[in-house]
Amino acid sequence: MNELHEKIKSALSEQDGNFIHIHNALEKLKPYLPITAVHLNDRDVVEHIDQMIFRFIKIQDGMGRRLIPLIVEAMEADTSEMTFIDSWFQCRLVCGNRPCGFMLHEEMNNERYFEW
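Above: the chain's sequence. Below: its structure in token form.
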């Protein structure tokens, strides 16, 4: 495997870890759903909400800083003048309806972690 492929696998693995932490925090919050203002006085509830927010921010950062630029690089596109949203659109445009590693990963994570 080439170096770029390994970097993409590493970036995806990093994101998987963050999704797992979000999923675990959500599992711990399930007894409190729907969360109301009263729950915000419970330290455990606040810690689990904080964990979800922190991991969500890490996912966004990792995708914008690492994963999407690597995918665009793999497509051999010039990203020097692209904004984040332009590079994201380019990834989705190239993959279209064809299965590719990134889109399958996105679909798997959407089904696995966001059915709630």
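Residues 112-116 have pLDDT under 50 and may be disordered.
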